[in-house]
Amino acid sequence: MSTPPRTPADRSTLLSRADAAVRGLTPGYFALVMATGILSVAMRTNNAMAISELLLVIAAVAYVVLVALSVVRVVRHREAMAADFADPARAFGFFTFVAATCVLGSRLAQEELHAPSLVLMILAALAWIVLGYTVPWTAVLGQHRPARALATANGTWFIWAVASQSIAVLAATLQVELPASMRPAMSLLAVFSWSVGIFLYGAVGVFVGVRMLAYPFRPADLTPPYWVAMGATAITVVAGARIVEMADAPVVDATRGLIAGASVFFWAFGTWLIPPLVIAGYWRHVRHRVPLRYEATLWSIIFPLGMYGVGSQFLGDVDHLPLVHAIGSVEIWIALAAWLVTFAAMLVTIWRTVLRRPRAGVEPGQ
Asked: Shortest CA distance to 77 belongs to which of 22, 17, 16?
């Protein structure tokens, strides 16, 4: 039986839902691109080329769509965007744009598309600088209520460090591919952003730790972005491995040994974080029965899983650690399975909440 055409009322309802979805778009939705892009890198590293290319297409399309939706949100719902910048619990999600841009650029660099990768790196670096100064001010210091900001510190704050390390990954990836005249600048950018990312991770870890100890912490507060605490260590490992593999340059020669050793340290700490995060999920969803349903922040779990697998393989290759490499080789397939489930849940949610024709007097989700 054919589906009757949409009526003007149906089209109006669809536009209204779409506009509401754009207004409520979470700043951290670019984690979808981060998760998809890093799994594309992982599949290519393991010679699953067809899967890697499909994931690359999905990541590129998602990136373009999210950029377009963000522009529409700035134009139509500027007050909602401003509110996100002023909200300590959401503002650091804007750094997912930086990380997503770099992850996509790193994957394109593997296809020897160096010009687009360089453009994406410049865009990400500019966004990293602007957001790096504006977000902490508008969300924390500029509120003149730092205690309130501390009370809402959460896992999204670690994306600040992830964004910094993503710059290091892309700069180190391009350093060996670009002309020799550009290598010193790329080397300095890679080591600089890696170093800044280390300090940011430590600072955010202190803030989030104090928040968990000093303020009531309910199961509902333990949101998926806390996995970024592990993802930040994983991307630090990837960035370190890439820097160690860079062509010789003064700043690289001065720091190569330090960065190689620190990468092992961060891999070990990230591995140690996985069991507590799994137990926390059990505590939240099983013991306290918080419903497990699709939300955009779930991509903040998929990205760390994928990045941990890639980081383990890269570190295993660079430092000649076969066991670490083997762990990564298994873990990326777990990450891919989690991506498939989350992606399917996302499509179903979009269909139910935005695209599905409403029944008479009933909105989707009711």
From this structure: 22
Give the separation between CA 208 and CA 92, rounded to whole angstroms: 13
How is residue 362 annotated by DSSP? B
CB 24 within 8 A of CB 364: no
Cβ burial of 252 (10 Å; 0-12, 13-18, 19+) is buried
**Residue ranges in the chain whose pLDDT is less than 50:** 1, 362-366
User: Residue 299 corresponds to which tokens in the numbers above?
Assistant: 């991509």
User: Is residue 175 within 8 Å of residue 186, measured between CB atoms?
Assistant: yes
Neighbours of 209 (CB within 10 A): 12
Angle between helices 95-110 and 159-175 (to 10 degrees): 20
The span from the CA of 191 to the CA of 240, in Å, is 9
Q: How many CB atoms lie within 10 A of CB 211?
A: 18
Residue from 291, 292, 283, 307 nearest 229 by CA: 307
Domains and CATH numbers, the chain: 11-355 (1.50.10.150)
Tell me the per-residue pLDDT of 108-127, one tens digit each, with 9 for 90 and over.
999 999 999 999 999 999 99
In this prediction the pTM is 0.91
SS3 359: strand
Q: How far apart are CA 187 and CA 242, in angstroms?
A: 11
Q: Please name which of 200, 91, 196 lies closest in space to residue 154, comparing C-alpha atoms.
A: 91
Residue 365's SS3 state is: coil
At 295 the three-state DSSP class reads coil
List the one residue out of 230, 168, 153, 236 whose CA is nearest residue 198.
236
Picking from 142, 47, 38, 35, the residue whose alpha carbon sits closest to that of residue 88 is 142
CA torsion, ordered 162, 163, 168, 169, to nearest 10 deg: 70
CA–CA dist 229, 162 (Å, integer): 9
Cβ neighbours of 208 (radius 10 Å): 19
